[in-house]
Predict the structure.
Amino acid sequence: MTAWRLEPERSPFPRLLAFPVLTLAAMFAVLARVDADLLRRSARCALRDGVGLPCPTCGGTQAAIDLAWGRPLAALAANPLVATILLAGALWCLYAVAATFVPRWRRSLALERRGMVAFRWTALVLVAGNWAWEVWGR
């Protein structure tokens, strides 16, 4: 008995959401290539400014800029969690575009209760680990 399974697509909304997400990502990539310093100056962390501690996503803007420049290892060094999420999101968007044109590829991930609990704990551990790395690892 597995905690997850692939089943026929329940709703096209998540798949079609990939198109505006890709549009915004392309706009960010162009801006990162044209004026990355503007992005760096506009990225402020309220936690770091107020308390002096970095948040779990500190360095995320630099990670996105590095990915736009085609430097995945530098992106992972800037913020491993954000870089991994962005890379996974890019792969998901590629799948969504392909599934739009190949209907038999349209699938939804169904998580049972056990799978959802495991997913939540994994996400919590990854965020906590990334935050610890941000605070003590740099």
Notes: The radius of gyration is 18 Å.
